[in-house]
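dude i think i finally got it to work??
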Amino acid sequence: MRLRHKPWANDFITEHSQYAISNPEQYKGKWHEIFGNHNPIHIEVGTGKGQFLAGMSQQNPDINYIGIELFDSVIVAAVQKAVDLQLENFKLLNVNAKDLSEYFDENEIDRVYLNFSDPWPKVRHAKRRLTYKDFLSLYEKILIKGGEIHFKTDNQGLFEYSLISFSEYGLQLKYLSLDLHNSDFEGNIMTEYEEKFSGKGQRIYRVEAKYMNEDI
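look at this
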């Protein structure tokens, strides 16, 4: 994806710190204080322009949502959505996903969403895929016991790779769909990419993967 530089983006993000949280490492283990409640916390890694999380926040007011996005020229659109909608359960972090454990404590997050992640198709770039084992280990550290990853993509190769990666890591695969938009799944919120790809007739793949580390 080619990114268009937006020199004003950083200032806009800074101006709206009630939604785009600065210095998030200060709130590790304390995110319920930011939201002012003890509702479950779901994060989206690679939130892009924020359409998915904004929709989820509206649909589920009793769940807190945090979007993670590295590029300020992209996340600024998500910040604008947060400002326009004034959702109290919607926050954003302009940080790198590989540093998640610096911002979230153990057992602090209830669910991770991965939507239309960069497929990094070359074999030598496998470690950069957000469903690579090192990332799965990172998510496990911050998720509650038995926490889940919900994954959507239009890329069949990435989907097949991810199913293998999830299985080899020991996750339980649930609610797998090879054609989401022609399935009986209800309540789907589309991302910007999802609208684009499905509009071209491309299939959308989806799976829920659960960590099998629940306390007995």
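The CA atoms of residues 46 and 69 lie 5 Å apart.
im so relieved honestly
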